Amino acid sequence: MGNSPKLALALVGLVLSGSLAACGDGRAGAQDAAKQLATAVSALDVGSVAFEGKDSGAANDQLKEIFKGLDPDKPAVQAGDLVFDADTATFPLNYIWKVGAEEWKYTVSAQLKKSGDKWLTVWKPAILVPDLADGEVVTRATQTPQRADILGAGDVPLVTYRPVVNIGIDKPALGGADPADSATNLAQLVGVDPAAYAQQVAATGPEAFVPAITLREDGARTVTDEQISAIPGARTIPDTLPLAPTRTFARALLGTVSEANAEQIEKSGGALKPGDTTGNGGLQQQYDAQLRGTDGIVIRAQKAGLTAAEIQATSPDPRRVLFRTGMKPGTALKTTLDPKLQQLAEDVLGNVGPASAIVALRPSSGAVLAAASGPGSNGYDTAMLGQYAPGSIFKMVDSLAMFRNGMTPDSKVDCPPTLTVDGRTFKNAEGYPASSLGSVTLRDAFAHSCNTAFINARDSVSQAQLESAATSLGVAVEAPALGSAAFLGSVPGEAAGTEHAASMIGQGKVLLSPLAAAIMAGSVAKGAPVAAQLVLNPNAGVTSPGAGSTPTAGTGASGTAPAAPPSGDATTSAAAAPATAAGAPITAAEAASLADMMRAVVTSGHAGFLASVPGEPVGAKTGTAEFGNDTPPKTHAWIVAVHGDLAVAVFVEDGGLGATTSGPLLKEFLTRAS
């Protein structure tokens, strides 16, 4: 009997340890089963999960059908703590779905039942979505806001929704007509590829409407409804699209809007989906997120196979809302563009063959009023992004540097017919007046654009001084206030010999855009550097600090780098680094001296044709820049002018002389703008 208490205790310990071991083993298996379920649902594939009374394959098929409407999204699912009751275990499944920029979070209750030594999941749709019943599926619908407008000066809409008509073949309306014949006839009528369109029509289903073209419904449409309806199956469908006043209006600057392609969707990181509209080029692309706004998304549970007609005919709505994100309209982009001046600039350039541009801005505020690129630019934004040797308009920079070395407009300079520097001979333009050769005032040399006089100043004006003077006039600098991609010029800080001599007449490696040329002239009119501005609310679409989409406009070495123009100008690919030696801002006295000489270009120089422009007196400077390797060389034609609170630059690539080519365009613009 002495050993019986010890034996009893040993037996009790053995029973207890066995019970605990059995209980521990069971719970571990349940926990593994819960984790397996969470992992499987996260992958939307429960084919490997053991269910109670439900075939795994059938459960997997049902799961995929339930969540088909959310494809390709998948949830993050985690299993919570298990609660045991005899041979059952209950636990929460915590779901997180990424829906747009938000998260859809919910928790459901799942159950395990023990069968032998295994834990089986109890299958029911409600373990996937709260209260989901058999025969229900989950759907997602997107509510897309209208794209916001791009506004001009005074908040006048530049790009806004305008009426259009979609023209195509409505296959159910074909009757017994041959789809290929109708498609070919319609394609020929509206000017699209007949073979490609006929193939497109043939490839679509019998209930499809196959669009051939979208045309503006602005009264100028040449294809009539009668012509369209005469073709079996052809019809029109009215619509609206965000459009500028005309097809060409500021197109290179504003960009366009179209349905997102596969590449844009892939690069958007989920921001775009098939069927979305997005910006292509220009401000539409740069500010796409701001203009597009944010889609609203509605997740619903509904009976499988429910049709749109059934939904419409049932009240209340037979669908149950599970989650919703708010739709956020886009924010209008406000610009300084004056629609009348922009259209005028485009009209003036309408018949110019080579690449061309007119930029007009208001010196007092820096507002860019017009930035037109002519038809010869072939869609390139020559006005803002062009990189060209400026020729003699750069003598404004030379003159400022010379003033800073003690000269005045009345100082004497030497203007010989030719000048040789390191074996390279420089000369004045054809037709240079003999009366302005020899010892002349700086004003006279500027008015008639004496190349040799300015090259003669090369020993007293260093390349660094040229760079500094350029930045003093607001060019070859960054332009954070502009709000648009642009090239504001490039002036090397170091150059010697013939390269320095070429810089004195705006050649060599000196490059400006038409925008930069207008800024340079505007700085003279203002008496201080002009900080150009095009976009007034560049950060309206920014949701967090540092998340802005505005590129820094400048010398092409930072922000959105401007591409080279599609021309043969060999100088355009040689943009230098940003100016590092920013000069002191031009003073009112320096600007007055430059304005005096620019006025002399009109009163006594070779821009006398501007004397008849009505209104305030015009000051100007012409420029002709050689480029390429032809003999004689081709030339760019430039002219800049100030007229009251208006500064304008006109540029024509391969345009001959500035005075004879760009000059008449400038005169027409200023006269009609007055």
Automatic annotation (TrEMBL):
Q: What is this protein called?
A: Penicillin-binding transpeptidase domain-containing protein
Residues covered by the NTF2-like N-terminal transpeptidase domain: 56-135
- Organism expressing this protein natively: Arthrobacter humicola
Composition skew (Low complexity), residue ranges: 543-576
Ranges for domain Penicillin-binding protein transpeptidase come to 357-669
Q: What is its main location?
A: membrane
Q: Where is this region: Disordered?
A: 542-576
Which PANTHER family does the annotation name?
A: PENICILLIN-BINDING PROTEIN 4B, PEPTIDOGLYCAN D,D-TRANSPEPTIDASE
